[in-house]
Design goal:
The protein is α+β, with helices and mostly antiparallel strands and 145 residues long. The protein has helices at residues 51-57, 110-144, and strands at 11-12, 22-26, 32-40, 44-49, 70-77, 81-95, 98-105. The protein is 29% helix and 37% strand. Strand 5 (70-77) and strand 6 (81-95) form a beta hairpin.
């Protein structure tokens, strides 16, 4: 079951929990490249790469937009290996040699959707428990005083 409120919420990939934070991207020209996963949400993923990787993935691409996306296949590992068709809808330049690709997932199979949902729910639960603990400590301190 999806909750609309957090459907687009990007969750940073926890590098300590997972052995790799890298994704393999296959472009329409058959080029395989590696990129670093920055965030993941229920409807997409955000990847960082360098300029050479970007030019190999999207050669001679004048512009990318949500109305004119570029189709790619992205493969990454959460609990199991996922291979998903996606559209590159946005490219941002973060620094001289660092670019950010925003991808929106195409049709997800049930297994991939469940795994992404489970990862996001687990991450949100961990963040919520980090926030609740300091509040409890403050309440206990004020009760003692």
């Amino acid at each position: 079951m999806k909750r609309q409120l957090i459907y687009h919420t990007p969750i940073a990939l926890d590098a300590q929990s997972y052995k790799t934070s890298e994704a393999s991207v296959l472009s329409g020209q058959g080029v395989h490249e590696r990129a670093t996963i920055k965030t993941i949400s229920r409807d997409g993923i955000c990847l960082n790469c360098d300029q050479e990787t970007l030019h190999r993935l999207l050669p001679n691409t004048p512009s990318v937009s949500p109305k004119c996306p570029v189709k790619v296949e992205v493969a990454f590992k959460l609990e199991s290996f996922l291979q998903i068709n996606a559209d590159v809808i946005c490219i941002r330049r973060l620094s001289k040699d660092t670019f950010q690709l925003e991808l929106r997932f195409g049709a997800l199979d049930a297994e991939a959707e469940c795994e992404i949902d489970a990862y996001i729910e687990h991450s949100l639960y961990k963040e919520k428990s980090k926030v609740v603990q300091p509040i409890r400590a403050m309440n206990e301190y004020s009760a003692v005083a």
